[in-house]
Design goal:
360 residues, alpha/beta, Rossmann fold, 2 domains, 13 strands, globular
């Protein structure tokens, strides 16, 4: 099967979207599919998705940018045609550019969360997301909660085309047991630094934690300088480490050295991949009280009121200081994570493409 896809982000950016694409298209290639996956030119390293084709197009807004993407892709595809087109991020330029190409192949769109969040705040993004959804044969959402968010945002969806297909994590990425860390009480967070991800609440909560609890925040984004200033203003330089995002395997190693992970998203979340990856390794997880986390994690996590630093500090402290609670969360997390084994979830995702092509 020939699969055409792409995401207009720098190819070496470590983010959930590329992790998901990496899992999907590595499996596709292993079964013999010819995948043409386009990304923007990497800023420093190699593309995270193996075999990705880099486009030397500067990211911007507007029709000129979309047309530049389209022209660059057409040049790369000379003489090749897809059996199916995957449109990642409903409100991104790459999805629009791919949808404009003169191919009759069926289209499978994937909502990732940031596209729905952007649509909440931007009418143009909302309109584009609706057009991409309308032009697609099916639209894949990882959770029912994200579908609700999209509908409430005003994105027009045909219920007959919506498919719920949860994401997955590698079947054996860690150590399936809780590790008692008597000399270390460390909170770990890994995320993009955006208002929605609400890392600010974590930094502010750190000021209310007992001094023996440290916080490691790993990520990149436009709020990095703001977070550093808040940390320094609170005199937390020795207890709150803010580090660049790192490769996935390195991040897994850092998870194994932590005591608990925090997922603080304030408004819209697609799934919670970081949290499930933590659970696979036996790491207890604390999330905000968004409905999506109830859908994905059930009772296997502790929760705090979204956007409330005092409540987060309370939950972190009561969790970290109770070995009994940590062990219970670790065990519950392992059970929950087995629901999202990558091997089975990839079969579900790839079967959607197979079905669309067979009906063509």
């Amino acid at each position: 099967m020939n699969i055409l896809s792409g995401i207009d982000l720098p190819g070496d950016l470590v983010c959930g979207s590329f992790m998901i694409a990496q899992d999907i298209y590595e499996q596709s290639r292993e079964r013999g599919d010819d995948v043409r996956f386009f990304v923007l030119k990497s800023t420093a390293g190699s593309p995270l998705v193996a075999g990705a084709i880099e486009l030397d197009v500067a990211k911007s807004d507007g029709s000129d940018y979309v047309n530049a993407l389209r022209s660059a892709i057409e040049f790369q595809l000379a003489g090749w045609s897809p059996d199916v087109i995957h449109l990642h991020h409903l409100a991104y330029g790459m999805a629009q550019a791919l949808s404009m190409l003169p191919f009759s192949a069926p289209r499978l769109a994937f909502a990732h969360g940031t596209d729905v969040y952007d649509a909440i705040r931007d009418e143009e993004a909302r309109s584009l997301a609706g057009r991409i959804a309308k032009s697609s044969d099916q639209v894949v959402f990882p959770t029912v909660s994200l579908v609700r968010d999209a509908i409430e945002t005003g994105i027009q969806l045909d219920p007959r085309r919506v498919v719920i297909a949860p994401w997955g994590v590698p079947d054996a990425i860690g150590q399936p047991e809780y590790r008692s860390l008597e000399n270390s009480k460390q909170v770990i967070v890994a995320s993009r630094f955006t208002a929605n991800k609400d890392i600010q609440t974590v930094v502010e909560a750190a000021a209310l934690l007992p001094p023996e609890i440290s916080v490691s925040i790993i990520g990149e984004g436009r709020e990095r300088e703001t977070l550093l200033k808040i940390r320094d203003d609170l005199a937390l330089e020795d207890r709150v480490m803010i580090e660049p995002m790192m490769p996935r395997v390195s991040l897994w190693r850092r998870m194994r050295a932590a005591t608990v992970a925090v997922f603080p998203t304030r408004e819209t979340e697609a799934f919670g991949l970081f949290g499930v990856e933590c659970q696979v390794q036996g790491l207890p997880v604390i999330t905000s009280d968004l409905p999506v986390f109830g859908e994905v994690f059930g009772g296997s996590v502790e929760r705090f009121r979204a956007g409330d630093p005092a409540d987060l500090a309370r939950v972190i402290t009561s969790t970290v200081e109770s070995d009994t609670k940590l062990r219970a969360l670790s065990a519950a997390g392992l059970v929950n994570a087995r629901r999202y084994q990558l091997s089975s979830k990839l079969k579900d995702l790839l079967s959607l493409s197979d079905a669309l092509v067979s009906r063509k």
